[in-house]
Amino acid sequence: MTVPEGGGTETMEFLVEIDIAVPADLPVEERERRYADEAAQGARLAADGVIQRIWRVPGTANNIGVWAASDASELHGHLASLPLFEFMTIRVRPLARHPLEAPDQHERGPARRKEDREHYR
């Protein structure tokens, strides 16, 4: 569990794997609208610190990410808020801190991403 910046409620981290299978017969207009709404909602969840890290599975619309929530019920609410939720197969694993993790690594969050990008230049 972690405590968000500025104090507040502890959060749990979850490894979330999402496979998306939008039906082929979904009208093009609805498909485009839902994908646009999905991107907007995903951006909101990331800005709110719910989606902490996310990776695309190459060649698919599927993704794997680290999400934060106070408990599994709150996580479910976040996942259910996604416009493509009804077309998703979602696997969730609660995470616990590993003793080998660097003491400050967990707290760095998004700053680590910048370091990662610069490391791989």
Explain this structure.
There is one protein chain. The chain is 36% helix and 25% strand. The protein has 121 residues and is an alpha+beta fold. It has one domain (12-119): Alpha-Beta Plaits (2-Layer Sandwich). A four-stranded antiparallel β-sheet has the order 2-3-1-4. The radius of gyration is 16 Å and the shape is elongated.
Entry summary:
The chain is of the alpha+beta class.
- How much is the average pLDDT? 85
Element string (H = helix, E = strand): EHEEHEHH
User: Outline, from the CA principal axes?
Assistant: elongated
- Which structural class should the secondary elements be placed in? alpha+beta
For CATH, the homologous superfamily is named as: Dimeric alpha+beta barrel
Strand content: 15-25%
- CATH-defined architecture: 2-Layer Sandwich
What is the CATH topology? Alpha-Beta Plaits
Question: Termini distance?
Answer: 32 Å
Radius of gyration (Å): 16 Å
Helical residue percent? 25-40%
How many individual domains?
1
Query: What's the CATH class, please?
Result: Alpha Beta
Uncertain ranges:
110-121
Strand order of the biggest β-sheet: 2-3-1-4
Summary tags:
elongated, 4 strands, 4-stranded antiparallel β-sheet, 121 residues, Alpha-Beta Plaits, 4 helices, alpha+beta, disordered C terminus
Task: Present the secondary structure layout.
Elements: E1 12-20, H1 28-47, E2 51-56, E3 63-69, H2 72-80, E4 88-95, H3 105-108, H4 110-119
Antiparallel strand pairs: 1-3, 1-4, 2-3
